[in-house]
Amino acid sequence: MIENSVSIIKKAVSEIVGRDVSGFLETDPLELDSIHRITLIVELENIFDVIISDENLVPEVFDTIGSLATFVKGLSGSDEV
Fold first, then answer.
1. pLDDT digits over 35-61, tens only?
2. For the chain, which domains are there?
3. Rounded CA gap, 32 and 30, in Å?
4. Could you tell me which of 44, 59, 58, 57 has the C-alpha nearest to residue 10?
5. Deepest of 11, 17, 38, 69, by most Cβ within 10 A of its Cβ?
6. Contact 26, 69 (CB under 8 A)
7. Please, are residues 36 and 3 in contact by the beta-carbon 8 Å criterion?
8. Residue 15 DSSP class
9. Measured between alpha carbons, how far is 49 from 47 in angstroms, rounded to an integer?
10. Which residues make beta-bridge pairs with 29?
């Protein structure tokens, strides 16, 4: 479910940026730098067992927890992510 992926993404983002984002709403801005984005791409690929190609990446994907969850859900083609 999307709620589960949100908590998984929050945990991954928290570990990568070194600050707790568990209290973030899905619409709160993440303000990730480029290194954090690259690290997060690799982590999301590992966690969700997906391949993220350059063609699928647009800056807005990294704006919020919600945009990341929607993006990952779209990659899997399932509501179960």
1. 999 999 999 999 989 889 888 789 999
2. 2-76 (1.10.1200.10)
3. 6
4. 44
5. 69
6. yes
7. no
8. H
9. 6
10. 64
Structure tokens at 13: 């983002």
Q: Quick one: which of 1, 19, 10 has its CA closest to 68?
A: 10
Residues 6+ apart with CB under 8 A from 26: 6, 64, 65, 66, 69
Residue in the structure block whose two tokens are 């619409």: 27
The encoded tokens of residue 4 equal: 């589960």
Secondary structure (DSSP) of 34-65: HHHHHHHHHHHHHHHT----GGG--GGGGSBH
**Does residue 1 carry a pLDDT above 80?**
no
- Start-to-end C-alpha separation, the chain: 6
Angle at 27 between CA 53 and CA 80, to 5 degrees: 55
